[in-house]
Write a structure and sequence with these properties.
Radius of gyration: 17 Å
Distance between the termini: 35 Å
Oligomer: single chain
Number of helices: 2
Low-confidence stretches: 61-65
Length: about 70
């Protein structure tokens, strides 16, 4: 594979990541009337994109601190 082709592939990958980052940032300012399920889905998607563990809240403990899995 030639160097120009590798660079073109990397540019496309970075463009896709930038688009995903824009979507995540757009959802970050989501109105507070979103459901808990919608907020959780957003946090899972953002964590996946950032390459960090996915926050899992333990509803039985009713804690403000998430349990981490993943």
């Amino acid at each position: 594979m030639i160097k120009a082709h590798k660079r073109a592939i990397k540019i496309v990958e970075l463009q896709e990541e930038l688009e995903e980052a824009k979507n995540i940032i757009g959802e970050f300012v989501w109105p507070s009337d979103a459901t808990e399920e919608q907020h959780h889905a957003f946090r899972v998607r953002a964590a996946h994109f950032a390459g960090v563990s996915i926050p899992q809240h333990n509803k039985m403990k009713n804690s403000d601190f998430p349990e981490r899995i993943g």
